[in-house]
Amino acid sequence: MEISLEQLKWYGRNQDIDGCRYFDYSASGFEFCFTGKKASCTIYSDSPYYDENTKAVVGLYVTELSSPADYKGQSYWENFPSELTKRFILTEEKNNITLFESSEEKTVLIRVLKLSEVNFGSAGIKNIEIEGKLNIPQGGYLNQNDTKALKVEIVGDSITCGYGIEGIFNKDGFTTKQERADLAYGFLTMKELGAEFQECCWSGIGIISKYVDASIEIPDTSVVMPSVWPYTDKSLSLRKGVEPQIWDEKRFSPDLVIVHLGTNDASYVRKVEGRRQAYISGLQQFLEAIHRRSPSAKLLCCLGVMGQDLCTAQEEAVKLFSKDFKTVPVKVVKFPVHDENIDGVAADWHPNKASHLKISKILAKAIKDW
Question: Which CA distances in Å does 120 have to 18, 43, 367?
Fold first, then answer.
């Protein structure tokens, strides 16, 4: 039996190109519940064009249910398992994946989420094949946008992506096999809050510059968040040779937008005042762009786990924004720098799981208190 794209419950930003629905951003994906013996799909990807360290990775989460009535189709977190069931590295243009197989008939909830980030290989499907019966809740799925739960958009860099989180500093170089969006602070915070969410994150990205080496004296503006965020999946669109699609805010209208950007800008700013002012101005303008698109959303800026050089500049940008938009609720959360002596460090000096858990607790408390 073939299940169409419309018969699945979708999460995060996704885009249809040539009959295939791509879910490329971190923690984006789909779910379905069925009663039967087997489920499979073909995941399409451009991973063959990436090297062995940067191929797309998706995560599979399988939860066995007592009966179809146990599936309500209400929330991202409904019957979410405590552990990842399996991960798949997409090495081919067409990757044939067995999602579930059993000698006896069972009722299972299956989720497939992107673990690697948007700029390292795509992932898309055209349909699902099952041997059994699809279980769609009475009344259909509850759309992420229709739930009464808190709705959050998280805009960030490699830290939000879970970059290198399963690697070890000075031992492992980065690979997408170590990247776990589901172990990163944003995902953990949303889980604690029971929030519906989507992520727009990209490693090395900033407001005015990507990460640059200390010998570089000009900003790298090849990919900066203000030029990526407005679109559903700009990177994929350009690789496919189609015009980037503007993201439709009506598909997901956040109550809160979290902005975690500045770690990579700091590599260029280096305490040079003119550059610092450019970051302040850039962040102020980006907050205005978010407010124009989502005028009902609160805004929260956070920074600091990989360095606090631009934390004060972030606060200044928020004050300037608030001066012009006095009625918009906006908050700043300063994270402590991760302590490698206590918690250890992941690949390329990124925070590991323990550090992500710590800052997720700080962020969750700030949101609850707010």
Answer: 20, 15, 31
DSSP conformation letters of 293-308: H-TT-EEEEEE-TT--
Listed residue (52, 260, 261, 91) closest to 174, CA to CA: 52
pLDDT at 171 over 90: no
pLDDT reported for residue 173? 87
E strand spans, 166-267? 196-201, 256-260
C-beta of residue 55 within 8 angstroms of C-beta of residue 89:
yes
**Rounded to whole angstroms, how far apart are CA atoms 89 and 282?**
36
- Alpha-carbon distances, residue 279 vs 15, 158, 283 (angstroms): 31, 18, 6
| CB-CB contact of 330 with 299 (8 Å) | yes
Going through 115-247 in order, the beta strands assigned E by DSSP cover 124-125, 128-134, 151-156, 196-201
Buried b (16+ CB within 10 A) or exposed e, 225-243: bbebbbbbbbbbbeeeeee
CB 277, CB 54: distance < 8 Å? no
Please give the single-letter amino acid code of residue 29: G
What does the pLDDT read at residue 308? 98
Phi, psi of 286 (to 5 degrees): -70, -40
**Chain centroid offset of residue 292 CA:** 22
- Token digits for 334? 């300063």
Residues 253-267: tens digit of each pLDDT: 999 999 999 999 999
State the burial class of residue 165 (Cβ atoms within 10 Å of its Cβ: 0-12, 13-18, 19+): buried
Centre a 10 Å sphere on the Cβ of residue 108 and count the other Cβ atoms it contains: 21
- The span from the CA of 27 to the CA of 17, in Å, is 20
What pLDDT digit, counting tens, does each position of 282-339 carry? 999 999 999 999 999 999 999 999 999 999 999 999 999 999 999 999 999 999 999 9
Dihedral sign, CA of 84, 86, 91, 97? negative
> Which has more confidence, 139 or 90?
90
Where residue 241 falls (left for φ over 0; alpha for ψ -120 to 50; beta otherwise) is left
CB neighbour list of residue 9: distance below 8 Å, 6 or more residues apart: 30, 31, 32, 73, 141
Provide long-range contacts, Cβ within 8 A and 24+ apart, for 95-98.
95/42, 95/43, 95/44, 95/45, 95/47, 96/40, 96/42, 97/40, 97/41, 97/42, 97/43, 97/60, 98/38, 98/39, 98/40
